[in-house]
Amino acid sequence: MKYYIIAGEASGDLHASNLMKAIRLRDPQAEFRAWGGDRMLNEGAVIVKHINELAFMGFVEVLLNLSTIIKNLKFCKEDILEYNPDVVIFIDYPGFNLRIAEFAKKNHFKTVYYISPQVWAWKQSRVKKIRRDIDKMLVILPFEEAFYNEYDYPVTFVGHPLLDALEQKDTEISGSDLTVEHKLTDKPVIALLPGSRKQEINRMLELMCKTSDNFPDYQFVIAGVSAHSIDFYKKYSGKRDIPIIFGHTYQLLRIAHAALVTSGTATLETALIGTPQVVCYKAGAISYYIARKLVDVKYISLVNLIMDEQVVKELIQNDCNSVNLKSELAKITEKGIYRENIINKYEKLRIKLGGSGASEKAAKEIVEFLED
């Protein structure tokens, strides 16, 4: 069968690639055409648009790139018609995907959404469009099933695919190899995860690097992504000798004593690996103001949202400053109840997510749906 998959961000590329691998075990003749990244390319997808061209963050950034987004929507619709797939699979990326889903449904293509839009956080009215345009919804957070049930829309909880990704990484290079390969010192490591988008890194990395000045007994290490050059990262660290490690974020987190993490999927990755963290988030002033008016959630990190309590400290907007970062990082690096409580709650989080196998469960649901 022919599968058209749309993933617009790095996390979507990761989860879509694992889904493709699982689909191929059930459908050896599967063909994939996709919007995605290098991981999907390595799994055999023909990449129509790369994620490096697609990630626009914040309301203002979307407006500034509106003409590009409109062109992409038009091109995607034409490409789907020409490819004529058996199913269109949407991976998160709701601003774009929900518009394409409406088009796909009107043109009688089967539609599957894997990794639900966060409609429970804002614009819950979108559930009506999802019911209309999505034939099958596969959710990865335990509370999403109950949320959709309130709208009389049956969905399937398959577990979180990050658990699969972590198990996959466990078979690759061990964390300890990083200390030799990248010439790290014997000091305990503080991992810096400033995000994958340029806007995120612009706002967060310099502040994270400055925090290292207050912790001379630790070695700070930046988790870099291949989309950006080493010089791009170095301009934020300045004259500080802060190593940058590309492509080994999970291994870095495994050897880290603690981490500063920009809000997003990385907060959950850090928690599942078991590294105590401080969650950091800054947006443009206008984007943040609009988000405050629209978003109705108690927390911004997936860790706290899933657990429905503050497991990790969130420093948001003006609270994300040098003084608070120093104070919170000091708390999680010291041995004691505060740090132990975070690690214990991480174990409960892992249980709540339902174990590994999300990719296989999702593939089974999709292939059986198409066969039916």
Description:
The chain has 372 residues and is α/β, with parallel strands linked by helices. It has helices spanning 10-26, 38-42, 59-64, 66-83, 94-106, 126-133, 142-149, 162-170, 177-181, 198-211, 230-237, 249-255, 265-273, 285-294, 302-307, 322-333, 337-352, 358-371; strands at 2-7, 31-36, 46-50, 87-91, 110-114, 136-139, 156-157, 189-193, 219-224, 244-246, 256-262, 277-281, 313-316. The protein folds into two domains: 2-159 and 357-371, Glycogen Phosphorylase B (Rossmann fold), CATH 3.40.50; 167-352, Glycogen Phosphorylase B (Rossmann fold). It is globular, with a radius of gyration of 21 Å. Helix 6 links the parallel strand 5 (110-114) and strand 6 (136-139). The strands form two sheets. It has a seven-stranded parallel beta sheet with strand order 3-2-1-4-5-6-7, with helices on both faces. A six-stranded parallel beta sheet has the order 10-9-8-11-12-13, sandwiched between helices. 43% of the residues are buried.
| Structural class label | alpha/beta
Helix content: 40-55%
**CATH homologous superfamily assignment of the largest domain:** Glycogen Phosphorylase B
N- and C-termini, Cα separation: 13 Å
> Can you count the helices?
18
Give the strand tally.
13
Main beta sheet: 7 strands, parallel
Coarse shape: globular
So, CATH architecture of the largest domain?
Answer: 3-Layer(aba) Sandwich
Domain count: 2
- The low-pLDDT segments are none
Mean pLDDT: 89
**CATH hierarchy class name of the largest domain:** Alpha Beta
CATH topology name of the largest domain: Rossmann fold
